[in-house]
Specification:
Blueprint (H helix, E strand, L loop, with lengths): L8 E3 L7 H31 L6 H30 L3 E3 H34 L7
Antiparallel strand pairs: 1-2
Length: 132
């Protein structure tokens, strides 16, 4: 008789055992999430609305803010929901999606930071070749 067991969900490790600490973690995560949303939203709005900021460096900064929004929106809402509703389960598909998106956003951020550093290198070391 073959083994036909399959994994349908994972159990996450709880940040705290008591309800008061779970609520504290929820409020701290909510504050971090809202600060990241506000900061990245302000950067995106400023770069998109001000025509003087339509330069390559600010284009990279806008993309970095959007990638950061994607990065923080991948895992933090599930962590906040787990802390608030006292649950620990995540589905296999949900876990796979979180890992995929987190790796995608992190690798995109690293590539963008590499391009930003090369942009600054060209602007500083070869100013005559750098067009603004």
């Amino acid at each position: 008789m073959p083994n036909s067991s399959s994994i349908s969900e994972f159990l996450l490790l709880a940040l705290a055992d008591t309800r008061q600490l779970q609520l504290l973690h929820f409020w701290l995560l909510l504050g971090i999430y809202l600060a990241a949303l506000l900061g990245n939203g302000l950067i995106s709005t400023a770069v998109a609305c001000d025509h003087r900021l339509h330069t390559p460096m600010y284009f990279f900064l806008l993309n970095l803010a959007l990638l950061d929004l994607g990065c923080i929106s991948t895992t933090l809402p599930k962590a906040m929901a787990n802390a608030l509703w006292h649950t620990r389960a995540i589905s296999y598909a949900g876990c796979a999606a979180q890992v995929f998106f987190l790796l995608f956003f992190f690798s995109a951020e690293y590539c963008l930071l590499t391009m930003m550093s090369y942009d600054r290198y060209v602007a500083i070391c070869k100013p005559l070749h750098y067009g603004t």
